[in-house]
Amino acid sequence: MPLIMTSTIIDPKSEELSVREARQAQNRAIALADIDAAAKFWTADITIRRALGQAVTGINEARKILEPGPNKLQAIIYQRSSTSVEVSPHWHLAYEEGHWTGHLEDVSSTAILAGRYAAQWVKRGDLWLIRSEVFVALTCAGSGCEALALP
């Protein structure tokens, strides 16, 4: 892919707000089980390291994370809460970190998994998109504690 040079002046504070708003919009889409809307915040070549170690590459594989499991069991509803967002004043790149939770019924139910995450965002046109995410599971409850982490 060719490098894209830009002479655009970047305002990190206003762009930070845009990244946070994009994260909140994706959270809302996930809570509503609107996979199409949630996927609009990922680049086509998204890479994700799931909370228990599984690697996911590409938007089609990433979408599967949000789909119901075998026998049409409800998908886990993931929510991310940013603790910090830093936007580069030079490139259209941002770094986000925070806490995440995974719920079975809805976002108000007790989280069965939770932990920390980091994300790389890239701005394309007027949109901030997630290029890469890393999640680490740190706590669990109920059926979440039955899940196995990759060695």
**What's the helix count?**
3
The biggest beta sheet is recorded as: 6 strands, mixed
Beta-strand share of residues: 35-45%
Strand order of the largest sheet: 2-1-6-5-4-3
Percent of residues in helices comes to 10-25%
Query: How many domains make up the 3D coordinates?
Result: 1
Q: According to CATH, what is the class?
A: Alpha Beta
Mean of residue pLDDT? 92
Q: How does CATH name the architecture?
A: Roll
| Backbone CA Rg | 16 Å
Provide a descriptive summary of the structure in words.
The protein contains 3 helices and 6 strands. It is α+β, with helices and mostly antiparallel strands and 151 residues long. It has a single domain (12-144), classed as Nuclear Transport Factor 2, Chain: A (Roll), CATH 3.10.450. A 6-stranded mixed beta sheet has the order 2-1-6-5-4-3. It is globular. The model has no long low-confidence stretch (mean pLDDT 92).
